[in-house]
Amino acid sequence: MAEAKRILVTGGAGFIGSAVVRHLVPQAGIEVLNLDKLTYAANLDSLRGVSGMAAYRFAEADIADSARVARIFTDFHPHAVMHLAAESHVDRSIDGPEDFIQSNVVGTYRLAQEALRYWRQLPHAEAEAFRFHHISTDEVFGELGATGIFTEDSPYRPNSPYAASKASADHIVRAWGRTYGLPVVLSNCSNNYGPYHFPEKLIPLVILKGLAGETIPVYGKGEQIRDWLFVEDHARALQLIVERGEVGESYNVGGGSERTNLQVVQGICDLLDRLRPRHDGSHRDLIGFVPDRPGHDFRYAIDYTHLENTLGWRPLESFESGLEKTVQWYLDNDWWWRPIVERHYAGQRLGLSKPEATAPN
After folding, report:
1. What are the DSSP calls for 13-36, one per residue?
2. I want to staple 231 with a disulfide (CB 3.0 to 4.6 A). Which of 9, 194, 208, 275 is the partner?
3. Which domains are assigned to the chain?
4. Helices 319-332 and 334-343 sit at what angle, rounded to 10 degrees?
5. How far is 150 from 143, CA to CA, in rounded Å?
6. How many angstroms from the chain centroid is the CA of residue 350?
C-alpha cells in the first residue's frame, strides 16, 4: 500500500481552512494535521464531520511559536504545507492592526523558516516533492475602477492594514522560494462565502440580522463590488494547486461573480423572504445605510484563466446557487452559529478607527 500523503493545514479551524480540511480528510490516501491557534474566529465545531476520522489530527499551536512548529514538522513529517492561518477581517485590522502584523507577517516568516529547516533535511526525493502553499487574497492588489481585472502580474497596492499584512506575507514566501529554494506555490482568492462563516463578515451577518429582524447595515450606498467565490469551489482549487501547481508560480482563484454589496444584501433578503418569510413585510425593509468604512476599496475582480488553463479548474457554483445553499445552511444549522452570536460576536460594528466605536467585508 502506498504511503498516505500528509498535509499540514494551518488555520484549519477557520472558515476557508475548515473547508479545506473537510474536503481533504475523506479522500483516500491523504492524512491531515490541522494546526490552529483557536483565536476568536476559529471553531472546531466546523470540523465535527471529520474530527473522528483516522486521517485527521489536530494540534493547538501558534504558527509564530517556532519551537512548537518545529516539533510538529518532525512528528507529522508532512509532504506539503497549506498555509491559511491568518487574521482576516478588514474592519478588525483598522481597529487593531498589530494583531495582523504579528499573525500574518511574523507568523508567516516563522512558519516559512521552520518549513525551510525541515525541507533542507529531507531525503532528495521527498525534498523534490515537498510543497509550501501560501494562500492569500486579492486585496493585496488594491482596488480596481469600473473596469479591469486582477491577474497574477497585477502590482501590489494594499490599502488596508489587513491587505498590507497579507502582501507582506506573500513577499516573504516568494522570497523564501527565490532566495533559499523552498518549493513554494502561492494563490490569491476573491471574496469567499459559504457555510461555517464567522458572522462578522457580510453574508453571514446579513443572514443573521435578517433572521433576527434587526437592521441590516450597508456601508455607504452599497456600491462597492466584489467577486464572490463559494468556499467549497475554493477548497477544490487549493488542492489542485498544492498537488499540481508549478513551483514558484502564483494562481488567482475567483468566482467570476461580481456583485455590488447592495445586490448581495438584496439577494439574501429575497431568499429569506422565500425560505423564512417575515410576518410584517419584506426583509429588504430592514436594510439601513451606515457611514462607509475608512479606505473602503471600490472593486475587486479576479482573472482565474491561468488556473483554468493550466490545472483545469472552474467554479461549479454560480453566485445564485451558492448563495441559496449558504442561506439554507444557516437556516438549518443554528447549533453552529447561535453560540457564537450569544457568547462571542453579536453583530456590533467594527472598523471605524475611532476609540469609541465598537464591522463586514
Report:
1. TSHHHHHHHHHHTTSTTEEEEEEE
2. 194
3. 5-197+229-255+301-317 (3.40.50.720)
4. 70
5. 9
6. 19
Q: Kindly report the pTM of this predicted structure.
A: 0.94
Contact 75, 119 (CB under 8 A): no
C-alpha cell at 228: 464572490
- Please answer whether residues 215 and 209 qualify as being in contact, where contact means their C-beta atoms are separated by less than 8 angstroms: yes
Task: Give every CB contact of residue 114 below 8 A, 6+ residues apart in sequence.
Answer: 66, 69, 70, 73
Beta bridge partners of 302: 150
Q: Which three cell numbers stand for residue 24?
A: 481533504
Residues acting as catalytic residues: 138-139, 162
User: Using CA atoms, how far apart are residues 26 and 32, in angstroms rounded to an integer?
Assistant: 10
DSSP 291: P
Cβ(176)–Cβ(112) below 8 Å: yes
Q: Are strands 191-193 and 258-260 parallel, antiparallel or unpaired?
A: unpaired
Cell of 313: 479548474
* pLDDT tens per residue across span 337-350: 999 998 865 556 45
> What pLDDT sits at residue 346?
53
With b for 16 or more beta-carbon neighbours within 10 A and e for fewer, the 235-264 pattern comes to bbbbbbbbbebeeebbbbbbbbbbbbbbeb
